[in-house]
Amino acid sequence: MASEIYNTLLEISENIPNHAKFYKGFYKKFLIMGQAIVTLKVMPESVEINLSDLEKEITHVLAQHDIKVSKIDREPIAFGLLALNVIFLMDENKGDTETLENACKSLKGVMNAEVTDMRRSF
User: If we measure between CA atoms, which residue out of 96, 85, 89 comes closest to residue 36?
Assistant: First the structure.
């Protein structure tokens, strides 16, 4: 959806008369899709889950979606249970994060996975 809007607006900007090159350049810069910094919180099913193995599995699953994990933090929840906060960059033109959440939820030992933060990177 976002890439369709981008292409339409880019096409419109191509039709701007030559005497308006400044504005044409402005529109092209405005239309460039950026990257988003995403934090995905992954909750393991229990304290018995090996978090190191789970981190490797999450990294592998995200790599299949052309996403490189920048950092994984462990967040204490309660009674020894730790959540994984997976931080990565994602192209905005890829759309929403639902497919990534579902891919992580499908991993063995994962109770839940949800995006807790998403910010535009410049």
Answer: 89
35-121 CATH pick, 3.30.470.20, 3.40.50.720, 3.40.50.300, 3.30.70.60? 3.30.70.60
Is 93:4 a contact under the CB 8 Å cutoff? no
**Tens digit of pLDDT for each residue in 92-117?**
877 788 989 999 999 999 999 999 99
Encoded tokens for 105: 């939820």
Q: Contact at 8 Å (CB) between 69 and 86?
A: yes
pTM, to two decimals: 0.70
Q: Is the Cβ–Cβ distance between 84 and 55 less than 8 Å?
A: yes
